């Protein structure tokens, strides 16, 4: 009987110690949470125990770390990865980049640095470079952007549908070839550049001109012959 009583007393003592330990743990956690909340509020102009920073100083950005329906605010000197700083009259905010693969962005839609495994081209992140571009470090660049270009050639003759005369207006073109020191991997991406312009053509072709000259010569000869015949008739009369 005494043995059972002793066991019961020990059981209650253990329960009392366990209860005391739980109370101390709860108080400790509350103190740590209170100290952490107070520490977070040091950089805030306005702070809430439930939501953290609500307003920051002019030089800091308000970052809202969302967790489901709730969020916790903090004031930062620079925005974290995947966000950009937007300054406003009342508050400076950290805004999330639209693309999840974007590590840094200039605004919501224009990425300036991609996360690992992605390549940057014109503000977007790609798994592989788009057609007509090639990889350069962590970016994709267009084939001819940094390419040394040769000089323009001479303008071609002025033509219209294969004709070089007889029409008022035609087209002529010229080509600019790539320089000899162009890297081989870029040559396929940089075809020779060509430009064209409108040009004035000769209204009359050379053959037509010669025909007209011969016709004019025959007309003059016939006129001279007619005058000579009339003079001869007059003299005989």
Main features:
Hormone Receptor, Insulin-like Growth Factor Receptor 1, Chain A domain 2, 32% strand, alpha+beta, two-stranded antiparallel sheet, 237 residues, 15 strands, 3 helices
Proportion of residues in extended strands: 25-35%
Number of strands: 15
The coarse overall form would be: rod-shaped
* Helix/strand order: HEEEEEEEEEEEEEEHEH
H/I helix tally? 3
Strand order in space, largest sheet: 13-14-15
The major beta sheet can be summarized as: 3 strands, antiparallel
This entry's quaternary arrangement is single chain
Mean pLDDT: 76
Low-confidence region ranges: none
Structural class: alpha+beta
Helix coverage percent of residues?
A: 25-40%
Task: Quote the CATH topology of the domain at 29-96.
Answer: Hormone Receptor, Insulin-like Growth Factor Receptor 1, Chain A domain 2
Structure characterization notes:
- By secondary structure, the chain is α+β, with helices and mostly antiparallel strands.
- The protein is 31% helix and 32% strand.
- It has helices at residues 2-40, 184-187, 206-236; strands at residues 44-48, 52-56, 61-67, 70-76, 83-86, 93-96, 102-105, 111-114, 119-121, 124-126, 133-136, 139-142, 149-152, 169-178, 193-200.
- The strands form seven sheets. The protein has a three-stranded antiparallel beta sheet, with no helix packed on it.
- Strand 9 (119-121) and strand 10 (124-126) form a beta hairpin.
- 11% of the residues are buried.
- The model has no long low-confidence stretch (mean pLDDT 76).
């Amino acid at each position: 009987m005494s043995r059972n009583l002793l066991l019961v007393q020990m059981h209650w003592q253990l329960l009392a110690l366990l209860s005391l330990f739980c109370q101390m743990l709860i108080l400790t956690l509350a103190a740590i949470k209170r100290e952490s909340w107070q520490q977070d509020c040091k950089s805030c102009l306005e702070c809430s125990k439930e939501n953290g920073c609500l307003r920051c100083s002019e030089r800091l950005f308000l970052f809202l770390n969302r967790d489901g329906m709730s969020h916790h605010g903090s004031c930062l000197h620079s925005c974290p990865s995947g966000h950009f700083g937007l300054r406003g009259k009342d508050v400076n905010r950290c805004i999330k980049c639209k693309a999840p693969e974007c590590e840094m962005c200039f605004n919501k839609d224009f990425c300036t640095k991609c996360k690992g495994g992605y390549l940057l081209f014109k503000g977007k992140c790609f798994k592989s470079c788009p057609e007509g571009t090639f990889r350069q470090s962590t970016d994709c660049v267009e084939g001819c952007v940094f390419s040394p270009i040769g000089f323009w050639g001479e303008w071609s003759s002025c033509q219209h549908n294969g004709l070089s005369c007889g029409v008022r207006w035609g087209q002529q073109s010229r080509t600019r070839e790539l320089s000899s020191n162009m890297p081989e991997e870029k040559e396929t991406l940089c075809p020779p550049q060509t430009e064209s312009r409108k040009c004035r053509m000769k209204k009359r072709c050379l053959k037509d001109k010669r025909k007209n000259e011969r016709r004019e010569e025959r007309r003059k000869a016939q006129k001279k012959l007619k005058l000579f015949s009339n003079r001869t008739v007059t003299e005989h009369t």
